[in-house]
Amino acid sequence: TSEATVHSLEAAVRRKDELIGQLQPRLRAQCLSRRALGIQGLGPLFNCTPCRSLDSGELQRGLAELGLVLDAAEAEGVCRRWDRDGSGTLDLDEFLRALRPPMSQAREAVIAAAFAKLDRSGDGVVTVDDLRGVYRGCAHPKVRSGEWTEEEVLRRFLDNFDSSEKDGSRAAK
Length: 173
Fold this sequence. Notes:
Layout: H1 2-33, H2 36-40, H3 42-47, E1 53-54, H4 56-65, H5 72-82, E2 90-91, H6 92-99, H7 105-118, E3 125-127, H8 128-132, H9 141-144, H10 150-159, E4 169-171
Antiparallel strand pairs: 1-2, 3-4
Helix pairs in contact: 1-5, 4-5
């Protein structure tokens, strides 16, 4: 009875998760079939709100304008699944990350080799101190002009790869 209800609810959640999982390749294929227009068309979609992010209703309407039709439940599921920062909305980065195809093994190997080169301490985390051994910021135009210090150049370089917290380090994954 109550156990059967729990199993029934769990099965419904699994089916919904599977449905949302099937949407990702469908949306990816639809965007890619539109070539650059598919991706370019997303810019205005995300720029039309002050916070440059979309809730599920805005996502549903915006994608419909691009010819990508989702029902309300699908749009809500997509928002929940792809919302990496827990804000309840999708920003352009979250959306593009979800649409990006998986990396090939060859590309992952190149990235791992580059990371290993930057990780001078070998601890699995690249820090500004690690970068000092492989990157010289003194020739950077903003350091030469006196606008930034070499430390700032290294930090800003690392920030390009850092999470939203920008703590001055980047772990391998």
